[in-house]
Amino acid sequence: MAEIEASQYRKNSGLNKYTIVCALLASTNSILLGYDIGVMSGAVILIKDDFKITRTQQEILVGTLNVFSLVGSLASGKTSDIIGRRYTIVLATCTFLMGALLMGLAPSYLFLMAGRCVAGIGVGYALMIAPVYTAELSPAMSRGFLTSLPEVFITFGLLVGYIVNFALSGLPLHISWRLMLGLAAIPAIGIGFGVIAMPESPRWLVMKGKLSEAKKVLIRTSASEEEAQLRLEEITKDAIQGPDSAHEGGSVWKEILLRPTRPTRRMLVAAIGINFFMQASGNDAVVYYCPEVFKAAGIHNKRQLFGVNVIMGLAKALFVLLSALKLDKYGRRPLLLLGSAGMVVSLFGLGLGSKFLEHSTEKPTWAIALCIIAVCADVSFFSIGLGPITWVYSSEIFPMRLRAQASSLAISVNRLVSGVVSMTFLSISHEITFGGIFFTFAGIMLAGTVFFYLFLPETKGRTLEDMETIFEDKVTTKNTELVPTTALCPSVTLTQKR
Fold first, then answer.
1. What integer pLDDT is reported at residue 108 of this predicted model?
2. What digits encode the pLDDT tens for the residues 35-93?
3. Among 446, 438, 444, 427, which residue's Cα sits nearest to residue 297?
């Protein structure tokens, strides 16, 4: 009877308005990264003309933010375990704010680099903490939609960045790019104030022994008080099952890296793998350097280049929103495999169009149109699959005692690969041409599609406390049935620390 009730509560737990507001506030942090990627794709052209920098300096300028976000990602796990998820969001916002101001006021290339280093650390914190916080706050049946919101906001920030590029490109050179980069301080200030209205993660509160506070949060984020009590029991049981010293940083890292259980090892492979392929697909490089690609294709007018970016941003925004709305209906695996296969075809088409243009002196319109369609298709398929699902998967599969630091490790791989790709894209394309590098990305995504099919099980509808059971299974299945956690072991007695 208890099992039936538990399952029924999960199926009936719809989208709670308070949970949606909290997830939206947490995910707005991701606007900062999206805006930087979008606005930098155009600003770097103006900076190159203003400071007379080389191609290598241009790559370093673009990639520095991603490399330094690695620092924020690695530190975010331990930080959020100590000060809480909510205050880590505040820290991320304040750090990015300082970086944005430094970039907007930069009198020289070195000063600009310093601003991107600081902003990168803030981005690293934000990328880890937003999906983790949202996953820990959300009911199982709506977690896919809510934890995909960071990618929705990254895409929204990207689109805003493209529009700002287009709008400010007519201003004097030395003013336009500074305004483009400095405007990022505005959303950072708004996010900082918005966090005041957010509660702390109930799972972090349980981890700290604050059960009464955790229950208050769960009541506000659940459909009923009975569901809140059920969720509290599941969370508490998961906390009790961890090793006695699991919340000590050193012990957590030992359990993750030196003595992982079979489920933990499989979780690490899945999380690190999906984060690796997310950036090895070249998506960030395509977005950052899209104007350079189309300059090579024969489009030289700056406003036309920025206009193509706006079209790409609109396509990306439409499909990421569609994916977010359907994640809890169709599941992670179908959308991920569809998106990845679509990226293979799109990148191959982009490589084909680029190769034809490289060997043509007339730059035919149909080849340019093929490249534009292929770029829009690539970012659209990315937004259906890898874009939102990477954040969802990374934040939901690890047990509570490991979640923050294991997620930070996976996202650090994401940031490292993004930095390497961003800082080498122009140099490699100079050696093997744009067509050659897009063919390479297509091959990488083909390998990624096979990896996802073999190593990523479906997690739709399962509670965070059920994940170890899923990853204990030897066979990756397309669908998993809802198994109430209360069915796996009897209810636990809740004891609050005094």
1. 92
2. 888 888 888 888 988 999 888 898 899 889 888 988 998 898 889 989 999 999 989 99
3. 438
Looking at 331-364, list the stretches that DSSP marks H as alpha helix, in order from N- to C-terminal side: 332-358
Q: Quick check: 432 pLDDT over 80?
A: yes
Letter string b/e over residues 121-150, b meaning 16 or more CB atoms within 10 A of that residue's CB: bbbbbbbbbbbbbbbbbbbbbbbbbbbbbb
Lowest-confidence range among 220-229, 267-276, 285-294?
Answer: 285-294
CA distance 136 to 218: 10
User: Nearest Cα to 205, choosing from 294, 137, 280?
Assistant: 137
**% residues pLDDT > 90 (the chain):** 28
Please state, in angstroms and rounded to a whole number, the distance separating the CA atoms of residues 467 and 135: 13
* Distance set, CA 278 to CA 80, 274, 335, 413 (Å): 24, 6, 14, 10
Report DSSP state, residue 246: T
Cα dihedral 359, 360, 361, 367 sign: negative
Within 10 Å of residue 95's Cβ, how many Cβ atoms?
Answer: 22
Q: What is the largest CA-CA distance in the chain?
A: 77
Q: Alpha carbon 242 to chain centroid distance?
A: 27
